[in-house]
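Quick start: read one record
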Amino acid sequence: MNDNPASALSQTDDASFSEADAHALPRILLIDDEPRLLSALHELLRDRGFDLVTASSGAEALAQLTARRFDLVLLDLRLPDMSGHEIMDFINAREIDADVIVMSGDVGIEAAIGALKRGAYDYLRKPYSREEMLKTVGNALQQRSLALDNERIASQLENSEKLYRYLVDSSPDIIYTLNHEGRFTFVNDRAFQLLGFAREDLIGQHYTVLVHDEDLERARYAFNERRVDERASRNVELRLKCHPRAGQDREFNTTLMTISLNSMGMHVPDNDVKKLEFYGTYGVARDITDRKRAEEVISYQAYHDILTDLPNRMLFKDRLGLAIIQAKRKMTELAVMFIDLDRFKLVNDTLGHVKGDELLQQVALRLKQCLRDGDTLARQGGDEFTIVLPELAGRAEAKAIAEKFLACLHLPFDLDGHQVHISASIGIAIYPGDGESIDELLRHADIAMYQVKALGKNGQSFYHNSMLDVSHQKIALEQSLRKALEQNELEMYYQPQIDVITGRIIGAEGLMRWNHPQRGLLTANEFLPFAEDNGLMLPISDWMLGALCRDMLVWNESGGEAIRLSLNLSPQYLDRGDFFEKMRGALLRYGISPAQIEVEITENICIRNPQYAIEQLNKLCQLGVSVAIDDFGTGYSSLSYLHRFPIHTIKIDQSFVKEIHDEQGHYPVILAIISIARGLGLHLIAEGVETEVQARYLKSNGCLTMQGYLFHHPISLGSFLEVLQEQEVQLAACRASVPQAKRA
């Protein structure tokens, strides 16, 4: 007998392995429709001892799999003509003996679950590292090699006892036999490698020394199995104990079969057998710990938000449902809160989505610290969070927790040196008064949250039935807004801008109004948010541009002195590449001088996409249209963009003007803005001037153009023209009186 097991292996003439011996190099099929990625993958594996074949489509891959034998398939899930899952179904249906490593850029878990269910060896998420790919390929081929070796040696058990020992001890699985009492009569070396128990520690011991206490009842049927063939135990999952030196418990998929004397002849020669008699159990235990952990990770991710690690919408609804059942049984109340962060979109637009994600993570941590034991905080998506408060003592307790949320969010957030302040709008619904189902409670909490938004944000509110009527009114408002353009219900109003030295109107800001057939005259703040959310800002902005030019034409044709009208520009409108062409077309169509038009933008437009904004605004300036920064100082101000952007005017926001209560007082923000405008040679306008004190303070410190209720409310075109004509008459009278005074 040859003492070398490997030598004994080489002597086999088993025809089933002739093809494997025909090529020494593992053959790998690379499937990816992206030429760059496919080339990079081929380059990575080229000089590493593999026979590489590539395919750039599903059809090409199926042709290769049909024509040739492969050890390993590296499969991209997204192909132009079929999915990777379909290719795996083809492999399984044809019983093609090849391991599959799936590569995918899909962040969802459905693709991973589908791949694992179809028997994928591993799942790599793009972009993967070189080391990760090489390690996974190496492990797959190594495991395949071990499996093939195991299979090859199994076919030669009759040749040699030593070959049998080599097969068993080289197996990646634990192989064992038990006598009729359930005691180990044989176990291979893999038990020591995985569990830390040496062979001599187990021989003669009952199988229960290895089985986890909670799995003993299930193990009794598997380890005492007497049946054979298809009726024997298959894929029974058990937890086995590890020796203290081996680490944590591991989980096993145990395949068992009963061995009768005439089938195996393990102890008694065949010629001495008088009858079929059970004398023990043979089993193979495969370590599936890593697979179980992977399944746990996938299951966890299916019910949790990856960014914040909070329960997601699905898990939240499950827990809310359980809380409702418990509250119904105990006849107690519970609260559902809907939280929406205020000004979060501004952070995303100005600092970027990475910083926005960091902010959401910090918000989640703060909110969790305010919860009681048993409360559930979940992320619904975006900047929305939901909370269930079971076993509520009363509304006062829910209100107190909501106030804690608002207080914790009031403190500034530090995003790599950027101090960010946000607030939240919180809606609260109480079970059972505000609803008895999951969807009803969530919907009512959401309605209450929007009520807080409508009242100025940064607060909390309990749901009330009257809010449902308001919600229905908003839906009706959205529907009727779509008809307003067609039915000519929109109108431009103008708020004059006054030169306080001469008292003359030198310009006006165009403000949109809606002549609603039932609700009367609506201001822009009452309907433009709906337009922003429902994709109506573009057609409304088109209308506003045309209306402004038509109104300007009416004034010009009356022969009055030229004035300048300003137009508030929506960020959505500027982002459209055809804005400049629309502006130029409208000016040409109505014969309006570009110098009579000023475009007002917020500073956040400049910050979120600076280069694009610079290009668009430069085009306007070349055309002759001037640019004003509206609400200056209220966003994430940066003096650098005042140098980079073609800006002509700064408008002091009314929130700063309202702070002026003393003509002799000191208001540093206002003074700073005036100094900036003076230093950069920019025109300056103060908005929201309502008192003589405010006007005198601004005038004495160098701001000479103002608009606000002190001078004029926003007025219709007809009223605006009357005011302008009256001003023209007064000017003409002054001019006529000058020569008479000289003659006198």
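Residues 717-743 form the longest helix (27 residues).
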